[in-house]
Structures are given as structure tokens and as C-alpha cells.
Amino acid sequence: MKKLLAVLCMGAVSSVAMAQDDNSNRGNGWQFQPEFSIGAGYGFTKLKDGEFDEDEAAKKVFGVVKFNEYIGVEAAYIDFDEAGNGIYDVDLKGKALNLILELPVSQSFSVYAKGGQMWWDADTNEVDTSDFLTSRDHDGDETFWGLGAKFRLAEHLDLRVEYERFNFEISRDEVNVLQPNSIDMDVDFASVNLQFTF
Fold first, then answer.
1. pTM for the whole thing?
2. Rounded distance, CA 13 to CA 91, Å?
3. What is d(CA 11, CA 15) in angstroms, rounded to the nearest whole number?
């Protein structure tokens, strides 16, 4: 993950240099105006940690600031919904901040990579041997990455199709002494999003 973030940072520096060269080629009268976008998406997650192996729906809302046609910053809120394995249920939500590197292929299509940090909260409901229900709250932060494609639908409206990979870790002591393993959950999130640019 650190290598991916390093690559994204190098790409960001290259993108800024390209934008500066483009600016100089167009003359002193040209200035790039930052673009502001908002959007929402819906998709499905695949949860895997040895204890979980199931698909769940997930929802997200996000905002994007593009500094040039190659680089931007995105902030998002994602509700991963609830998953269970018969012993305990986990309800995950998170706030994310990430860098986006975009490569325009044509005027109506581009591909992009993203990487950043997620700050998450998890509510767990655990059932012990006497069927007593225990609820606990957990939180943490993890790095994540993603890949996507963007299609222009109208002048201010884009369709984004993307894949993201998250990881959530909750120690055994935080869950329950009766639970033999910690929760180390990989979450694959595939989503379809609509993005409106002002």
C-alpha cells in the first residue's frame, strides 16, 4: 500500500508539471479553474476474513475537487451495511480522503486510480454461549486504494464505475474473549456512481 501511495504521489507531481507546461504553452492569459463535483453511488461489497464470506450492499456520497484534468482530491462517506457470521454482526461505516489521478482517453472517457486514508467506525453485536447479546463500538483508520473509469453522460454529468479495496482490523480483545480470532476483514467494493460537476 505504501508503494501505491508513493506511485500516486509521483504521479501527482508529474501531473502538476504537465499542467504547468500546458499553461506556459497556452500563454499568460490561460488559467485553470478548479472543478467542484458532488456525487453518490450504490454497489456491492465482498467481505472476507475467514469468518465472513458474503456479499452486502453499500452506499456512498462524495465530493471532488479537481485541480487540473489529471489530479484531484476526493472526500467520501461510505455505509458498508451490516454483515454477520452467526456469532457476531458487524455494521461498518467510514469517512475517506484520497488522491485521484485521472488519465483522459477521450473527451468523454477517462480512467483513474485513487489511494488514501479511511477513518471507520464499527458496531459489533456478539452472542455468547448463554445467548446474551453484547454490543460494542470500535473505530480505526486504514489506507485503501481503488481503480475506476468515468463516462461523460452530459455536459455536467458523469457516470463512474469503480472498484475499491479496504481492510478493517479489530483485535480479539476488542471483540470478545469468547471469539477465538481477531477480525481482519478485507472488503472489496464495486460501485456505480453519478457525479455532477458545477
1. 0.76
2. 38
3. 6
